[in-house]
């Protein structure tokens, strides 16, 4: 598999790699979308290099494809239990929309994963649903969070904690980058003691994500 480096476009490496793996497993785009809690339109655009996924979306797709997320994306290791701002190196799936700073470590029995997310002005995240729970805490700027059709604007110092099986997405409706502390139980790094790609699917036997073409 080709690893998508931060400075490269998803259209150059990630989309073709995901498509190749999906076809090798004999899966349809609809099957991947349903299992990952995403829309088939989004999967189609992703494979064609027309959009790029969030870290949680890529982790979910990698699980469905029974492949470590590290085959698609290089991320900082979780071998330190403390990080300093000056030492953290931001990375991204695709440089255009989101960048991340890993702040959680990995150890036996750990279940929590956490990153600082920097979302570019105008960026709209793909709607997704998956098992687990997550919490957003806005560090700087403001962002629109939509959960099952209900929108809330979060500003610096605001937070939201929710069940990840509810369809959710974010939109930076401003002209400035928003920085969010994200904490969740989804293994977005792929280095948990029981790798996510050993599981059957993100959502089990079904998805509650609405079907239809992804427009972002």
Tell me what you see in this structure.
With 216 residues, this protein is α+β, with helices and mostly antiparallel strands. Helices cover 17% and strands 22% of the residues. It contains four helices and eight strands, in the order H-H-H-H-E-E-E-E-E-E-E-E. Strands 1-2-8-3-6 form a five-stranded antiparallel beta sheet, with no helix packed on it. A three-stranded antiparallel beta sheet has the order 5-4-7, with no helix packed on it. A hairpin with a 2-residue loop joins strand 4 and strand 5. Helix 2 packs across helix 3 and helix 2 crosses helix 4. The longest helix has 11 residues. It is globular. The chain starts with 13 loop residues before the first helix and ends in a 32-residue tail after the last strand. 39% of the residues are buried.
């Amino acid at each position: 598999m080709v690893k998508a480096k931060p400075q490269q476009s998803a259209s150059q490496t990630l989309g073709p790699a995901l498509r190749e793996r999906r076809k090798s497993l004999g899966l349809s785009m609809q099957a991947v979308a349903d299992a990952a809690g995403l829309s088939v339109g989004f999967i189609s655009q992703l494979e064609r290099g027309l959009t790029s996924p969030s870290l949680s979306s890529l982790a979910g797709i990698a699980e469905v494809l029974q492949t470590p997320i590290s085959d698609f994306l290089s991320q900082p290791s979780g071998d330190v239990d403390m990080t300093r701002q000056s030492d953290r190196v931001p990375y991204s799936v695709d440089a255009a929309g989101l960048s991340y700073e890993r702040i959680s470590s990995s150890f036996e029995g750990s279940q929590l994963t956490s990153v600082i997310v920097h979302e570019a002005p105008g960026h709209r995240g793909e709607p997704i649903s998956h098992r687990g729970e997550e919490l957003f805490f806005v560090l700087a700027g403001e962002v629109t969070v939509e959960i099952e059709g209900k929108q809330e604007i979060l500003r610096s110092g605001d937070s939201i904690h929710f069940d990840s099986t509810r369809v959710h997405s974010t939109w930076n409706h401003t002209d400035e980058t928003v920085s969010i502390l994200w904490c969740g139980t989804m293994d977005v790094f792929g280095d948990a003691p029981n790798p996510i790609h050993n599981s059957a699917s993100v959502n089990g036997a079904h998805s509650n994500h609405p079907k239809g073409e992804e427009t972002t």
